[in-house]
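Hi everyone, sorry if this is the wrong subforum. Our group has a chain we'd like a structural model of before ordering constructs, and none of us has done structure prediction before. Sequence below.
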Amino acid sequence: MTKQEKTQVIEELQEVLKGTNVLYIADTEGLNAQQTSDLRRACFKEEISMKVVKNTLLRKAMENLEDKDFSGLFESLKGNSTIFIAEKGNVPAKLIQTFRKKSDRPLLKAAWVDSAVFVGDTQLETLASLKSKEELVGEIVGLLQSPIKNVISALKSGGNTIAGLVKTLSEKTE
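Answer:
Right subforum, don't worry. Here is the predicted structure as tokens:
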């Protein structure tokens, strides 16, 4: 690879890294052609961008970005590296978990989700349980609505008993 080609790859990686808040680095070494093809199809289906990269070029691209700190991932840039880019933080982890039911790869090396660094394959379960922004907003709205619903239902049911009580008291005085 010429110096010009390397520079071009670094610039492309920088553009990809600038536009994402979710980056997974995994080891896919040992997957045969069919398994790699299946993994690529699964990534496409889940809207995950998958790319095999050279560690040195990825590191240079990460170092050249000023607004994001990827330094926590540098130790993971050894051996075979494949990056997964997604919109939601838990989708690549769920994909890896599902794929690992059939194969022992890919192994998670590290992940960078909204500036939080997760290192090692042991973090896969934690990453898979992360909730997306939409899920969190939905839960918060549900929690906020719950007390209001209780108050309204109590007022509605209480209104009938109060009216019944007033009616009974008024009939009793006659």
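For your construct planning: DSSP finds six helices and five strands in the chain. The helical segments are 3-18, 33-45, 55-64, 91-99, 124-128, 133-173.
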